[in-house]
Request: fold
Amino acid sequence: MEAQHDRVAASLAAAGEALPAWEERAGEAERDALVPVLAEHRAVLLEHLDDEEESLLPLAARHLSAHEWNRLGEHFLASTPKPKLLFFLGMVLEEADRAERASMLASLPPAGRLLWHTVGRPAYVRRVRAVRRTAAPR
Reply:
């Protein structure tokens, strides 16, 4: 896992080095230099996240009480800026299936659901469209 963390950090640093040239000129040469770097970072990150999901989540389920797990969630909520929380919620909801989305949204307090539908989702859709230049997410 630590070696993967090092690879993720290295691939992210490589992306950070390639990005300024693309941001400045956004030409074909800069694009062609950036795309493989981003593809490598994506591959390394997905491998790592898949391994974490396969290895660490079962360990957490065996060794953390429900209270301890909930405290982790509370810490995340308390320490993450609200606009980022809404963006993260959009990312999670986009990857969830219909039943998971319904369950996650139902678990939000009414004010949270209202905030998601009126502020969070529209902002997420705008951001995704701008970045992907494709249709809106699910």
Remarks:
- Residues 78-133 form one domain.
- The CA atoms of residues 71 and 121 lie 26 Å apart.
- Helices lie at 2-25, 28-63, 66-79, 82-95, 98-107, 110-132.
- The chain is about 90% helix and 0% strand.
